[in-house]
Design the sequence.
């Protein structure tokens, strides 16, 4: 595939530079379209959108799913551009489960959130397995507070009933009766026993809202098929250019107890590393999904955007002349964690944030980006603000403590492994 | 213009368009597209295995040498040899399997409890610990970190370090990674002594940086070992480093640094994938197998700390190291320095699942039961 440039896109815009889309110029809008920060519909002067939409169409087509988009991906590796739309993580609900169990799972989906870098993340929805027509009404009603659904329906009747009762929700539906799904405008999930059959079924469906579930009888087969689908899509095989759904609950067919839960998490992480757009899981416990969430944030971050904060001295809880001086790095996650811990523990201090080029403490040292000279630079002017020239550095930086003393002339105290332990440490050291 | 509109409409409606006695100037492209659309809709789907088009390959590197090969190991390990991206099975199953090396240390260092509890009685006794790890967990490989040679630590003499390495290699017969303290001035002195003492064993000498790479290369060539080149998330520096070693030997492994899951692992993924792509596109200075220091996962508080609402750290910690290493493996790393024995055994089985589809998935016995709190 030839790489699309902003100029190619600009050619098809009205060149009015009206600013109505929120961009100052049409060129800026062209760049925003390429980076998927704007949508074609936001240009009010464009009469024929077809051509523009066509050249902007990604090898893996974008499928609108409420506010979110599934797919709309262009590359094999994130450094080649970026991956745009993180996969949805959905928790399995079966119609044979007791109502209380279903309620509990719905609560988990809605309430269980973890905070990372000031952003809350957690479950995105539910995957329902509906086999019993009599249960459809009750089960869908119990889940009415969720927004995103994957429905595996045994029959067309079940699918119809479920879609009726979940009107207005974002639905992906798997059932053999393609027509009923299409009629309702839901996203159609297409399966196949082989990649050949999968492609044939896509062709048969003849629809523009599709997700694929390639064969995944083993982890090896699943991972391999996901890569083949993405590479085929990039090689212009349109039938395989759709977002992919993976089911990590097959872990429970392979193992039991805690082994299955661990395997499920490992499988989900494999799928995150291998182009999945929706992943189905069974284990509702936080420890299982936590690494998957962290990995998702990582893989789908923008490689062009460095996650760093400005270096320099930050004041925490109004420090004074006697307050301790703490050192950390400008990798934004590290900075936010440290700052959060210090604020929570009500410690008044000066936080010296060293410019490591956005590296964490250990990788910064390994890269030669965290050393005495850089600490010295960050410390500029600090000597006038405190009485005692003492620096508290992270334990992971103990290796460079001598170097920091030599470069800065400050006395260095090696602190704790983790910023959550600083309060106790300061008390013991009488530095507080 | 009207004619063009008519043609557009005709195409959209899928009508057949016949043109007679028409002179075409700019309409050519449109007609071609009609022909293509018509043809496509008539074709039934035929799946063809996609092709990456890579032409280069990763150099095969051996670690450890058996008696036949001039060393004293019971087995040796081969890495590399691949011709496509990691685990792109439709083109090639990994030629050689990834291997996992257990970390040991020549001094007592801080370890998270979940790691320490596996072998608390052997801490500070690397030889006994290595024997235990091979016996209990079938360790395929052992890493000895000579942390006490650091001038800022105990400044242990190169000769004493070499004594310990010699003893370890006498007692334990798997291939080894011998790692210095990371002190740029001291490491070459330590490695000089070590390389000489265990000549012919094809030890992985860890680790060369840009300034020390030439020296490491010479030592590896003279005494038949391999060199680990490190350059933190920087492909250009990695090339400079390997090129220094390549003056003497191609027995090279590369470590571009593995950040813990949740703390910048995306940089590691992209550095490794980009290195692997360059290698497969023919860049000779990058055509070497890659190593991941996945033990770094334990720097993440999610791995070892009690955090409310996050669930038992006994599961979390193991999974954090497994997920960090798994991600590195899928990005191209094929030899791993790891800490927690449970994490290693789980990952060995995940590796087998990804390669053969078969594995022992009974992890229950490996994992510590969460402590009642």
Sequence:
């Amino acid at each position: 595939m030839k790489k699309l440039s902003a100029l190619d896109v600009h050619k098809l815009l009205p060149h009015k530079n009206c600013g109505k889309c929120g961009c100052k110029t049409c060129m800026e809008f062209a760049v925003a379209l390429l980076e998927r920060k704007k949508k074609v519909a936001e240009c009010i002067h464009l009469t024929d959108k077809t051509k523009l939409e066509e050249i902007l169409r990604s090898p893996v087509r974008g499928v609108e799913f409420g506010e979110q988009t599934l797919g709309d991906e262009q590359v094999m590796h994130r450094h080649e551009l970026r991956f745009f739309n993180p996969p949805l993580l959905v928790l399995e609900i079966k119609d044979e489960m007791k109502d209380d169990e279903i309620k509990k799972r719905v609560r988990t989906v809605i309430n269980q959130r973890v905070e990372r870098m000031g952003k809350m993340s957690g479950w995105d929805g539910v995957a329902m397995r509906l086999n019993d027509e009599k249960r459809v009404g009750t089960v869908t009603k119990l889940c009415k507070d969720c927004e995103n659904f994957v429905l595996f329906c045994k029959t067309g009747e079940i699918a119809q009933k479920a879609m009726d009762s979940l009107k207005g929700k974002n639905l992906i539906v798997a059932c053999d009766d393609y027509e009923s799904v299409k009629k309702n405008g839901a996203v159609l999930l297409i399966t196949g026993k082989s990649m050949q059959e999968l492609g044939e079924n896509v062709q048969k469906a003849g629809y523009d809202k599709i997700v694929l579930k390639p064969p995944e009888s083993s982890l090896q087969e699943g991972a391999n098929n996901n890569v083949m689908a993405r590479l085929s899509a990039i090689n212009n095989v349109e039938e395989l250019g759709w977002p992919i759904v993976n089911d990590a609950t097959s872990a429970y067919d392979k193992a039991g107890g805690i082994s299955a839960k661990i395997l499920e998490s490992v499988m989900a992480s494999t799928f995150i590393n291998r182009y999945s757009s929706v992943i189905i899981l069974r284990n509702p416990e936080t420890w299982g999904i936590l690494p998957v969430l962290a990995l998702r944030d990582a893989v789908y971050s923008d490689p062009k955007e460095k996650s760093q904060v400005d270096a320099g001295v930050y004041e925490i809880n109004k420090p004074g002349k006697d307050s301790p001086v703490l050192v950390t790095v400008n990798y934004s996650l590290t900075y936010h964690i440290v700052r959060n811990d210090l604020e929570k523990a009500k410690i008044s201090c000066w936080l010296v944030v060293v410019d490591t080029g956005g590296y964490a403490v250990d990788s910064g040292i390994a890269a030669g980006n965290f050393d005495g000279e850089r600490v010295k630079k960050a410390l500029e002017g600090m000597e006038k603000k405190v009485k005692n020239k003492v620096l508290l550095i992270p334990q992971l930086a103990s290796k460079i403590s001598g170097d920091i003393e030599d470069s800065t002339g400050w006395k260095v105290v090696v602190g704790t492994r983790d910023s959550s332990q600083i309060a106790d440490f300061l008390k013991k050291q009488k530095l507080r | 213009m009207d004619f063009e509109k008519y043609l557009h409409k005709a195409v959209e409606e899928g009508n057949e368009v016949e043109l007679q006695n028409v002179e075409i100037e700019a309409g050519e492209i449109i007609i071609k597209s009609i022909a293509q659309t018509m043809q496509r809709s008539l074709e039934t789907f035929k799946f063809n295995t996609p092709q990456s088009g890579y032409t280069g390959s990763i150099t095969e590197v051996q670690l450890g040498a058996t008696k036949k090969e001039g060393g004293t190991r019971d087995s040796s390990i081969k890495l590399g040899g691949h011709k496509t991206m990691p685990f792109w099975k439709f083109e090639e199953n990994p030629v050689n399997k990834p291997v996992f090396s257990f970390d040991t240390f020549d001094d007592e260092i801080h370890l998270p409890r979940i790691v320490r509890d596996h072998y608390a009685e052997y801490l500070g006794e690397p030889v006994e610990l290595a024997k235990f790890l091979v016996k209990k967990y079938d360790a395929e490989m052992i890493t000895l970190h000579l942390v006490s040679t650091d001038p800022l630590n105990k400044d242990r003499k190169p000769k004493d370090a070499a004594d310990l390495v010699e003893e370890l290699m006498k007692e334990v017969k798997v291939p080894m990674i011998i790692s210095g303290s990371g002190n740029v001035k001291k490491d070459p002195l330590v490695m000089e002594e070590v390389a000489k003492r265990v000549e012919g064993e094809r030890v992985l000498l860890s680790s060369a940086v840009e300034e020390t790479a030439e020296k490491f290369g010479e030592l590896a060539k003279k005494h038949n070992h391999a060199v680990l080149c490190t350059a933190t998330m920087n492909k250009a520096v990695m090339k400079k480093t390997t090129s220094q070693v390549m003056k003497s030997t191609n027995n090279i492994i590369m470590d571009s640094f593995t950040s813990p899951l949740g703390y910048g692992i995306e940089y590691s993924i992209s550095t490794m994938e980009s290195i692997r792509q360059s290698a497969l596109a023919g860049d000779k200075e990058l055509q070497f197998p890659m190593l991941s220091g996945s033990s770094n996962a334990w720097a993440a508080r999610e791995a070892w700390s009690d955090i409310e609402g996050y669930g038992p750290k006994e599961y979390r910690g193991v999974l954090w190291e497994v997920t960090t290493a798994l991600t590195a493996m899928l990005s191209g790393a094929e030899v791993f320095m790891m800490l927690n024995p449970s994490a290693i055994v789980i990952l060995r089985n995940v590796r087998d699942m990804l390669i053969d589809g078969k594995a022992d998935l009974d992890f229950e016995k490996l994992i510590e039961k969460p402590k009642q709190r």
